[in-house]
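Support case: user asked for a sample of complex input and structure output to validate their parser. Sending the pair below.
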Amino acid sequence: MWFLPFLGLFAGAALGYLLNIEIPAHLVKYFSVAFLAALDTIFGGIKSIQNGSFEGILLITGFFTNMLVAGFFAYIGDSIGVDLYLAAVFAFGVRIFSNISQIRHNIIAKYFKINRDDNDE
Amino acid sequence: MMNKKQIALTIILFFFGILTTTQYRSHVSSYNDLENQEQEYLATMARELTTKKRLIDSEITELERRLYELNNSNSSNKIIVENLTAEINNLQKINGTVAVKGPGIILTIDGNSPVIYTDLVKIINELWNSGAEAISVNDKRVTSKTYFYQSDETYQMTMNTNLLDPPYSIKALGNPQVLKTGIELPGGIIDNLKLYGIHPEIITIPEIALPGVDSIPSYSYAKEIS
């Protein structure tokens, strides 16, 4: 089940490497927020697969919307002198780690047949 | 259902891959950018490059010296003669000892204008300043030894030992547009002359001819310092 998604990841990575697009230096910061948003969406998606609440179209639209909005907010924040960039890094960071933790719990519960409760341990 | 999940995940992971590598490359290149380096590192780099440059510079000097030696020991007389001829031609142009031709401008001041000799000097200064390569006044070449004078009683102007009679015609050889622009600069000499009711006529000419000097000055006292 994981073969195709990984193929997609490597194909994308290879394509990005070959295209060699240079993000303008002043935009690198916003792309890093967009990157965090993308990462968050991916872990959220994996979690929802495990929970059985997965919806493909939601994931894809969420992926692009989150990226654009995150980058845009960071940009707006910089324009008006509010560090929304930091807020985004913090919020996405927290969510990513919490998602990873839940995914780990789910996997461990599944393979080791441990009765798990919903607390992060 | 599983298939749909896979496709959705594949699509986003594909784009995530592109984003990751692109971001990585951009970050690495901006990290390596000189602008983002530590000051100490930059100072070290500058010092090293300066040292290297000094080494290369001394190498160039050394090589040039060797080239000079080789030229002097091996070059045929023909090359020496060619070089000397080129130098003589150049000096003749500079000193005005030969007639020259080329593009330029002609500036004419008619006889009714209340010109004094400093006006001519200022015009000539401005023309040299604008890159004129040769200048003549009433078909007498202006050189490094040219002087102007004006009688206090008759206002008769002289250039060197020649009487200068109106209309005064100043020819300058050089880039016509540059010369014209230079002399017509706002607040410049032409504007200044207008205050006194002098309206010089300036025309650009694709080819003018300037005569050489009448007599070549001789030098008895000046000795070169080697």
